[in-house]
Structures are given as C-alpha cells and as structure tokens.
Amino acid sequence: MTTLSLRSQPPPATPAAQFLGWDHIEFWVGNARAFAGWLASGFGFDFTAYAGPETGRRQSVSYLMTQGEVRLVVTGALQPESPIALHVLRHGDGVARLAIRALDADAAFSAAVERGASPVRLPWRESDEEGTVIQADLATYGDTVHRLVQRSDYRGLFLPGYQPAASPSPVGAPVGLRAMDHCVGNVERGALDGWVAFYKEVLGFEQLVHFGDDQISTEYSALMSTVVWDGSKVVLPLNEPAEGRRKSQIDEFLEYYRGPGVQHIAFRTDDIVSAVSAMRTRGVRFLEVPPAYYEDARMRMEGYDLPWDDLMRLGVLVDRDDDGYLLQLFTENVTDRPTVFFEVIQREGATGFGAGNFKALFEAIERAQARRGNL
Q1: 13-164 maps to CATH 3.10.180.10
Q2: Which tens digits make up the pLDDT trace of 261-311?
Q3: Backbone φ, ψ for residue 251 (5° rounding)
Q4: Tens digits of per-residue pLDDT, 69-107?
Q5: What's the rounded Cα separation, in Å, for the pair 290 and 301?
Q6: Structure pTM?
Q7: Are 44 and 282 in contact (CB under 8 A)?
Q8: Are 94 and 186 in contact (CB under 8 A)?
Q9: Of the CATH numbers 3.40.50.10490, 1.10.10.60, 1.10.730.10, 3.10.180.10, which one belongs to the domain with range 177-372?
Q10: CA nearest 340: which of 176, 146, 185?
Q11: Which among 65, 86, 176, 217 has most CB atoms closer than 10 A?
C-alpha cells in the first residue's frame, strides 16, 4: 500500500483549513525605535529581535516585540521613497500586515486566489542556517495585507535576517499580556457585507456574531459590526459606520486614516487588575469611565464576586454572557492621529465582546472626539 505524503495531498477546501493562529502583527511607523521603545516602557513588551542595516537589510529597520504569545513587529523606512514611508505618509502610524501562521502557505495562498483573493506577493522562501520560512501576501480591506507564514521548517528566533536584540531593564512591574484575543478592522459605509462575504467565501471563515446599529449606538452616532473567525484563534471583528446625528468613531477613523484599516488590537490577560495597574504606572492612558457606570454594572453582574473597588479605581468595564463574564478596558489612541488603540481583556468563560459595555464605551470615545473637535 502506498502512503501519500502531506505535500501530495489535495489542497484544502478553504484557506482557513490551513490556519494555525496568529503569527505576528506588523506596524509601519515613522520612528520605529521610538514606537518600539514605547511598547516596551508602557506595555511591558520585550525587545526580542532586530533587522536593519547591521543585519544586511538596507531599506528598513524592524523590531520584534514579544510578550507571552503576542508578537508585534515595528518597522520603519530608511528611504523616503520606500513603500513604508508612503504608507505612513497616507495613513500615519498603523498596522500594515496581519500575519497568520499556516501549515502550508503555498496551499493556503493557492486556495485563496482560486476563490477570488487578490495576490499581493506570490509565495517566497527565505533561508538561513536555521532553516526556511515560506511566506505569501493577500490583499484585504484598504491597504492592509494578510501575510501567510509557514515556519514548520525553521528553528530560528523569528525570521531570516533577524538577530537577537538586547532588551533594556524593565521600567515597571510586569504587565502580563498573554495572547492575541482579536483584531478589529474599520471599513467604509456599505462595505461591511462585502468583506464579511470575502472572509466567509474566499478564506473560509465563519460568522461568529453580528451587531446592528440598534445595538451599538448612542445619542449621536452608531455603527454596525460583524465578527468572523477561522473557527479557532484568528478572530476579526469588522465595523462600518451607520447613520447618526454626528460623526461616529468609525467616520473619524476613516477620515484620519484615509480609508479602511485596523482600528484596535485586543490582548488577553489572566489578571486585568494587575495588568492595567502596571500599565497605568508605566504611563499608559485609558478611556475614562464615569462612576455612574458601575451602578448598572453591579446589577448586571449580580451573582459574581468581583473586586469592585479595584475595577472602579482602574476604570475596568465588565460584562457577562451565557458562558461566563469578561473584564475589558481600552487605551486612548496610541498614535498621533485618532486611529489605532489597544484593548486589554480578561475572559472568565465569556466568549462575547462586551455588548453590555457598548454604550459606555462609545460615550467615552465620543467624549474624546468632542475634545478633539471631531464629534
């Protein structure tokens, strides 16, 4: 009897069948050294690896920042005509690549293109003494790219061309971010259904939940959101603005980012009180929650023994669903333009996204918009 190797098997029915979870998220920024340094000092990330002129790269520099299972790559241009510099000129500092680890990057890429995905870069191989990495790029909303990364034959620290980087001494207590929870994208009005269809029909994702504008609204603005996922670890909520009396947070993002892009990244922690306490001490600023929020929250969370004094002191939001509860908090924008921010989330069984907090969260965002004169 002949046994077929993995390589000789037919390609997967969908690209998502090859996905193994998040590999990394790459920011393109105007000053990579400064941005990476802030991730270290404010959020507790470690400088893990570096690529640049000293490692043979002539056009850009990149810092690999790690914490738990989270890997962020911060890249800056060395030449003004670089695509990285042009991306920053248009969008400001932002996320350029959402990298997904694949069992077989060639097969996943081929399956995606056959189903209608737009290729950005055909699969290529990079090798050094530690082995070979296979990568390929697919277009998604705006100028955002999905990078497929196959590293099963690579033993190195990250990628060929990177060398270990010395991390400075911590400036505060450990933060304790453990893993990626989800990554949110904003698209223009009327485009949500099309991108949901792309993830479902082209990449093979499933729809997890949909929120209508009646669920995510305030007195002034509204949005609609659909969450898609690969059935395992890659969770991608997508937002579009809805009709409202004033400019919504999504409208503001689209205006300042000059189109669709990644709005926020959610990091999971096992202890949000400890994490947020450490981040506040390190200088990270969060959206402010009015004390009155906790009157309703205590009623909604009846039956759970929570550290209410700590949650109120730190401004942490709370919500529950049929599977348990979650604790979450959102930073202010982490870039000069009012575009990208981070979320910290602790899940205790809950699988939702804090629907009970939508009104309080969006009112907090609107207060920040009003201070900028953009509401």
Answers
A1: yes
A2: 999 999 999 999 999 999 999 999 998 888 888 888 898 899 999 999 999
A3: -60, -45
A4: 999 999 999 999 999 999 999 999 999 999 999 999 999
A5: 17
A6: 0.91
A7: yes
A8: no
A9: 3.10.180.10
A10: 185
A11: 65
